[in-house]
Amino acid sequence: MTAFEVRDLRVYYGDKEALKGITLNIPEKEITTIIGPSGCGKSTFLRCLNLMIKEIPYARTEGEVIFDGENVLEYEDEADIIAHRRRVGTVFQHPNPFPWMSIYDNVAYGLRLMGMDEDEIEDRVYEALEKAALLDQVEDRLDDPASALSGGQQQRLCIARALAMRPEVLLMDEPTSDLDPIATRKIEETVMELKGEVTIVFVTHLLPQAYRIGDYTAFFLHGELVEANDTEKLFTDPQDERTKEYIEVEFGPS
Ligand SMILES: Nc1ncnc2c1ncn2[C@@H]1O[C@H](COP(=O)(O)OP(=O)(O)OP(=O)(O)O)[C@@H](O)[C@H]1O
Ligand SMILES: [Mg+2]
Fold first, then answer.
1. pLDDT of residue 250
2. Do 174 and 204 touch, CB atoms closer than 8 A?
3. What gap in Å lies between CA 211 and CA 231, rounded to an integer?
């Protein structure tokens, strides 16, 4: 099953073509990792899946991003765009909780905006904190400000905030780049626990990370998709010379 069908996607920032015709299916409820050097278009690709690209006035798209049978790039109505973003959550590179808001309120925030009643919100907050593997550490201090948490915990809080909306897809753009190796591994474990339940698209420039957690991996270079395959296959038997070269440089020749 496919969560997103991307067809000949092109993105221009002004005159600059940042994505040059990407065609890629994102498998449902698996972890897709996206790798490639800085500037190859990974974040731009995610921006097309969550429609953040529409917030950049000088950006223009061509092609199709099909989700649940509709080309979401054609959405013009703010209500349609917001509804789409509820189904497709995003966690960014730098943890960005609302720092002076309590831990609890950070997770409840989006649900309150939806007008959900407080009893249901409470259930969802606990569920989301549990899934983000943060509940044990914060249960007795839910009223503390988010800024009292460590960097790794703040990133988990952002994951919980996204999960509270019960998204079908979770986009993660280098979510561990600010974190130490232990916090990184913990986030990876959390992400792996979520598969089977949520579709995950995880951008990373760390190849060992992409290899550890990915089921499916896409390699981008200069705005093009060079190769996409099952993760194991892409790393052990790349079909394209450019993939082979990139993996050798990063992992060392095998
Ligand atoms: N908001 C923007 N305005 C103009 N150009 C942009 C914008 N965002 C990205 N670009 C350009 O588009 C290309 C792709 O950038 P993008 O951020 O998608 O790459 P990336 O693969 O995520 O890189 P990194 O690994 O450094 O995060 C780059 O050449 C970049 O300079
Ligand atoms: Mg990026």
1. 76
2. yes
3. 6
Q: What is the pLDDT of residues 110-139, one digit of tens each?
A: 999 999 999 999 999 999 999 999 999 999
Ligand 1 binding pocket includes 60 (Cβ within 6 Å): no
CATH of 2-96+166-251, one of 3.40.50.300, 3.40.30.10, 3.30.70.360, 2.60.40.10: 3.40.50.300
Measured from the CB, is residue 42 less than 6 Å from ligand 1?
yes
Predicted confidence (pLDDT) at residue 220 exceeds the cutoff of 60: yes
Query: Ligand 2 center to residue 38 CA distance, Å?
Result: 7
CA distance 68 to 60: 22
125, burial (CB in 10 Å: exposed 0-12, middle 13-18, buried 19+): buried
pLDDT tens across 61-107, in order? 999 999 999 999 999 999 999 999 999 999 999 999 999 999 999 99
Length of the chain: 254
Its pTM surpasses 0.85: yes
Cα–Cα distance, 155 to 227 (Å, whole number): 30
Q: Pick the closest to residue 164 from 172, 156, 152 (CA basis).
A: 156
